[in-house]
Amino acid sequence: xxxxxxxxxxxxxxxxxRVVRVNRSGGAHEITDLNVSTALSGDLTDTHVTGDxxxxxxxxxxKNTVFAFAKEHGIGEIExxxxxxxxxxxxxxxxxxxxxxxxxxxxxxxxxxxxxxxPHSFQRSGVETRTATVTYDGTTSWVVSGLxxxxxxxxxxxxxxxxxxxxxxxxxxxxxxxxxxxxxxEWRHVAAEGDWGKSYAEVRRHLVExxxxxxxxxxxxxxxxxxxxxxxxxxxxxxxxxxLPNKHHFLVDLSPFGLTNxxxxxxxxxxxxxxxxGNVLRDDSPEPGLAWx
Amino acid sequence: xxxxxxxxxxxxxxxxxRVVRVNRSGGAHEITDLNVSTALSGDLTDTHVTGDxxxxxxxxxxKNTVFAFAKEHGIGEIExxxxxxxxxxxxxxxxxxxxxxxxxxxxxxxxxxxxxxxPHSFQRSGVETRTATVTYDGTTSWVVSGLxxxxxxxxxxxxxxxxxxxxxxxxxxxxxxxxxxxxxxEWRHVAAEGDWGKSYAEVRRHLVExxxxxxxxxxxxxxxxxxxxxxxxxxxxxxxxxxLPNKHHFLVDLSPFGLTNxxxxxxxxxxxxxxxxGNVLRDDSPEPGLAWx
Amino acid sequence: xxxxxxxxxxxxxxxxxRVVRVNRSGGAHEITDLNVSTALSGDLTDTHVTGDxxxxxxxxxxKNTVFAFAKEHGIGEIExxxxxxxxxxxxxxxxxxxxxxxxxxxxxxxxxxxxxxxPHSFQRSGVETRTATVTYDGTTSWVVSGLxxxxxxxxxxxxxxxxxxxxxxxxxxxxxxxxxxxxxxEWRHVAAEGDWGKSYAEVRRHLVExxxxxxxxxxxxxxxxxxxxxxxxxxxxxxxxxxLPNKHHFLVDLSPFGLTNxxxxxxxxxxxxxxxxGNVLRDDSPEPGLAWx
Amino acid sequence: xxxxxxxxxxxxxxxxxRVVRVNRSGGAHEITDLNVSTALSGDLTDTHVTGDxxxxxxxxxxKNTVFAFAKEHGIGEIExxxxxxxxxxxxxxxxxxxxxxxxxxxxxxxxxxxxxxxPHSFQRSGVETRTATVTYDGTTSWVVSGLxxxxxxxxxxxxxxxxxxxxxxxxxxxxxxxxxxxxxxEWRHVAAEGDWGKSYAEVRRHLVExxxxxxxxxxxxxxxxxxxxxxxxxxxxxxxxxxLPNKHHFLVDLSPFGLTNxxxxxxxxxxxxxxxxGNVLRDDSPEPGLAWx
Lengths: 293, 293, 293, 293
Prior knowledge:
Four copies of one chain form a homotetramer. Chain A is α+β, with helices and mostly antiparallel strands. Chain A contains five helices and 13 strands.
């Protein structure tokens, strides 16, 4: 080994442990359906350089811990479960100096039978997932909540014009287009405590309502409106990061068939797609620290 | 070419045309979001054997027809749109003797803003898709409706015991397990006309309710209950075909950690999975003909 | 239960058991990497109608059998492994009257180190998979071999013209286009025995060579050439079934930029795509029986 | 808008433009098959806050530029094509201060016919893709090359033992296991010029050979061996980043069937999987700047 070569940033863990918990304590069951990933870093040079694993808590143990904690402590909101796991690994393993727990939650609705909710029957609802990323360094905890694949569409109130044209520009300006995207959003909390469930519901509501209510001159404008709407209304949030694919819907040219297409029939394209990414944050928000990884 | 070689069954078409139609005629917009595939067969030996395309309506034309029909005739229920397309190709192209149109529909909910439905803003709902397969041979039309990826779960009322054991059997019997599946169902209509929208809603309701209400001794029993429930209640349906993956949820052994797992914490496995497939039909139902392809 | 409702065709089994076998007997290791699915049918009315499982060999047992057979009998060619499994289930379980074993094989190449093949290091090769489907009814065995996702492309020698035009036709005729497809092929063997490895290699070779050597006037013509080439050269094959997506490559219009595009720059589209399906078979081939399911 | 809310980091572009170029200039054709994504950032506050697009070069124009450049300048190595595109956007658009071009390349082999390479027929080779990410800020260019989904497996020479045990540890130590991973690697070049094709081939060779030649006590050790092998041999590389999923192969317990499993039959699991991530770099390497984004 050449002396000038060194190990840089590194982490290891168990990805995508699929844990499902059934709470049978009430009259009706509750289910919580998660995909949990753990990542630890710290004093891990030995295993990389010599293969000495004395400081490497196995990823298999990390997986076992996820299952055991779901029993010992329940799950509750995913931010809470993440905090519990994140703190456990750093606080119990001396060589581990930082942990990051990433959780996806899948939603289920209760099945209705004859108009009455069935007590222990469920159906998956929605394509979107709720997410949480919790980071802990032995002193501070950071919580980022989020959602993924919330697919939304406005059938009007979207324009795109006034842009610069160069030699390669052929796009016609438009004052009427479909605007569709799959919202991928993450938002950083000011503090590592709060009413996670309510906060999630409210942030999600503000994102969706801002999407619906913004007369859009660009997807960037919609992105900023969504992020600032959240910050305007939720003091517990310091920063919102959005990644919005522009899922193009092209008006089909029906004129060869003697038909007029008055913004009625569209082709939904797969690729390429626009990709608009941006962060919106408060001036006075605390530093992000290790929140974003 | 050896004389003993011949062309067998064949078909060709355009797969996965993604057409979205916006109906702006009312105060609030309506959107219809489809994935349409066409497949034609008939007197097509020439193109296979010599490359003479005189009888081959291009797949590009088939795609154009999907878009144009969405404008000229609207879409309505997908069975109706499928019938319209299926009949068009056979009736207008002499060499084409059979057409099969397969449609997937994606569902959208109206976004609510402050409790009020927004007039032209939508979000994708559910992971499930509605499907229709329409076949036409110049005389008869067959309609098969369906749904795909309706993920459901019962957290109790499922058992599995009393099965034969051979040298390779290690599975313990159980009187309490999670039963979860992704319902893939298709059902054949007695006739090529009807109230497609209502029929779909009712068949779906019966499938889901039968899943929830069946105390299951095997996924086969649940399958049969689902299919027969539909036939018992919907005289317009002749046959139901179900394909039900058994999405295993394994109870995690927490005893090494000194914990008892009272049917509470599960591991949701990906593969392998059970796969239960079966048809349920009426004695007196008409012959399927070309319905299933 | 209404007396007019009955159970139709049905089967059940364990899908996608991922078994990897390492043969360490020689100086260099060999690995076999499979995805095995089993499906059984027979006297299975009871479990559907009453939940009595006395005739239902658990899918878990089927999975165990796959692993155990990989040890007891080795794997060999996948057709052979499939025959072994197919016969076992029907011959050992009286209520089971038909079994179908479907296998996918993933290919690995030996890693070279300094030009020498390493004895126990491998890399996945190719996107394509080899497949086999074996069916057995207690008397007869049928073997269908195949391959999936063999992606091929001809950059010239492909034309498409002379087709009928209707009101919806806009496609210009072409004498020069890219022809690309992902070959999905299955071929039925005359008999349930043979040199499976050699047969596979030769059929694959003929399919690929026929694709490369055919000056194509339609993808149908290419399909027929591929199938008949196999039958012309491999007497052990009775029938070839091909499903060929036409992976469109559209010439980009560069004229707005003052550039000429002499069949040089293409856009590779995802959807929609053409889909050409057809069977090629011998006059004198044995009846397919249950081969295709 | 509350004055304390501000726009943070942001970028926009066209993702996944699928461009295929056929070079017909020689006796045999050559094809280059790419997936190109562009992302621009700069003085873009207006479009976010007011919807004024005067500084927003349309993503459609970016796509057109990709196609036009493939014609005007050819493609060459993907790092070169990326540099060309990256510099164009910043140098030609005053408000754009940084561009990042991400390219995936898919590999094709020439089809052999009767042992001779066909001049214009190709088949997709391998599951792996080659990647390049080029960043430019108006002054400096950074080049990161990479590969994705190179799936490799050692059938021996892998151990895992000597790790700490806590209350949740059940994993038995092993001195013999399968080690399999899908290599995802990126490596930063010291300079934005070089023999890209040769560098790629050599880095890939060193990664694969190091994987094969390392007797592994942990996947971390293998990771470090792979990264340091590259740096030891390729002075043009400053840093290697590796993300290695541990694709678990579990030895199947065949003892219930009276069989001994001498490291022969394995179950290949999907999830959860270990995930080992790490960077290896030189002491004396230049600062990464904007290379990694």
